[in-house]
Hints:
Blueprint: E1 3-7, H1 13-23, E2 28-32, H2 36-42, H3 54-61, E3 66-69, H4 72-78, E4 81-84, H5 104-116, E5 121-125, H6 133-143, E6 150-154, H7 164-169, E7 174-178, H8 182-195, E8 204-208, H9 209-240, H10 244-252, H11 273-286, H12 290-317, E9 326-330, H13 345-355, E10 359-363, H14 369-377, E11 400-402, H15 406-410, E12 415-418, H16 430-435, E13 442-445, H17 452-458, E14 461-464, H18 471-475
Parallel strand pairs: 1-2, 1-4, 2-3, 4-5, 5-6, 7-8, 9-10, 9-12, 10-11, 12-13, 13-14
Bound molecules: nicotinamide-adenine-dinucleotide and uridine-5'-diphosphate-glucose.
Uridine-5'-diphosphate-glucose is lined by residues 128, 157-161, 220, 223, 227, 261-263, 265, 268-270, 272-273, 334-335.
Amino acid sequence: MVKICCIGAGYVGGPTMAVIALKCPEIEVAVVDISVSRITAWNSDTLPIYEPGLDEVVKKCRGKNLFFSSDVEKHVSEADIVFVSVNTPTKTQGLGAGKAADLTYWESAARMIADVSKSNKIVVEKSTVPVKTAEAIEKILTHNSKGIDFQILSNPEFLAEGTAIQDLFNPDRVLIGGRETPEGQKAIAALRDVYAHWVPVDRIICSNLWSAELSKLAANAFLAQRISSVNAMSALCEATGADVSQVSHAVGKDTRIGPKFLNASVGFGGSCFQKDILNLVYICECNGLPEVANYWKQVIKINDYQKTRFVNRIVSSMFNTVSGKKIAILGFAFKKDTGDTRETPAIDVCKGLLGDKALLSIYDPQVNEEQIQRDLAMKKFDWDHPVHLQPMSPTSIKQVNVVWDAYAATKDAHGVCILTEWDEFKTLDYQRIYDNMRKPAFIFDGRNVVDEAKLRAIGFIVYSIGKPLDQWLKDMPAVA
Ligand SMILES: NC(=O)c1ccc[n+]([C@@H]2O[C@H](COP(=O)([O-])OP(=O)(O)OC[C@H]3O[C@@H](n4cnc5c(N)ncnc54)[C@H](O)[C@@H]3O)[C@@H](O)[C@H]2O)c1
Ligand SMILES: O=c1ccn([C@@H]2O[C@H](COP(=O)(O)OP(=O)(O)O[C@H]3O[C@H](CO)[C@@H](O)[C@H](O)[C@H]3O)[C@@H](O)[C@H]2O)c(=O)[nH]1
């Protein structure tokens, strides 16, 4: 029986391995992690991550050919294929701080693999890593190999959160990079056989190692660039009276451009886009390509601009101060259908409003108070470390109140900000919300989910990203 072990039971390792176990009943899959609490949660009825469809897949395989364990060394030593799906955070100190990927966790996983291995292994990079990481890992493994043969493959993951199971069941492509030697090609074939259990072979792309590593960074940079492009347009739409939804629709109808990923928003979030672009920028700089680095840096700059612009709109339209005013925040996750808050634009918007002394009442159907307080207290990039190594927040922020209902959040509020596109925000009883708010009552829609005309008819002053402005907002221009 082929044995697979995945180091890292996170958003990628957990769902990816659960799907491999489901689709390949004759393969034994073990997912291991240094975080005991994560493993305990994977073995319980409440999984550590919320992802539609994940519970069913885990329930079908857990205890049969899918195991979650904190006995990392045992499972690694027994495996034929070892996936490494650990954190690759942005460095916060030292060379490349604020940009370069911190490979501490990757390196420690590689050294552990070398230490405990007694048989030949294929080691698969699942984490997103800088180009040429495979070479570094190869050096660590071969210098400590005790005669064991290690083949390194790059198999980046393209799943998006909220649709992870769907994406894993039906991927646009699976990418496998390996050495162009006979042994490298044999390793590629072995991994291809695993995916071929359910992925059509024409969607399994094989390449050299460096192309596979770079393709992951490139794909995320292109996706994020589309959002920054449409967000840049949204600012111009507000200035000119154009409507960004109409512009996106018209532009996306061009089959060369396509309609996806053209929704203007308060900014992109999530654990990957910013981190991976910063990593790409650093690699360009290290390779003596400052123009290319600056080109990609702009994608992040526009994203930061969009979040600041949103906060400035709120404050300026509410008579240039939100001090002591209750503002309801609807949605805190970085997108709908996930409880993940990593790099969510809500953190920057909330911090901006708190900086102007607002009182925040936050509601998100999947994010609890402890998480929100941690996020608002944490320093930039600290979130991307194993949970038990993250600094604890010393105190909770008193101006922040977390509630479990949109109506409680909005009661007596001066303004409402929609920061995640949860479906339930489309069908709220906005008349009831308006009746219970202070007047004038404002709605700032950072996701373009509400029907502005209906809300205006109720009496709200409405701001929707990239849409023609109310007279009120035109009269109170925001400083960009
Ligand atoms: N989240 C996504 O949607 C996504 C998608 C594609 C790629 N990625 C990439 O995949 C990687 C993992 O991302 P994630 O979102 O799953 O992160 P995560 O933080 O959810 O999970 C990583 C896990 O690795 C564990 N870990 C760290 N070092 C370890 C070690 N030495 N031994 C055992 N366990 C260890 C941590 O405790 C943690 O549970 C990152 O490189 C990320 O960029 C993420
Ligand atoms: O038109 C759009 C599409 C997305 N977003 C925002 O962009 C962010 C990222 O969304 P999405 O890409 O759907 O989610 P992620 O889970 O971050 O997935 C991205 O990052 C993963 C990690 O690398 C990759 O595997 C995926 O392919 C890539 O889509 C979220 O805040 C979205 O709200 C927009 O603002 N407008």
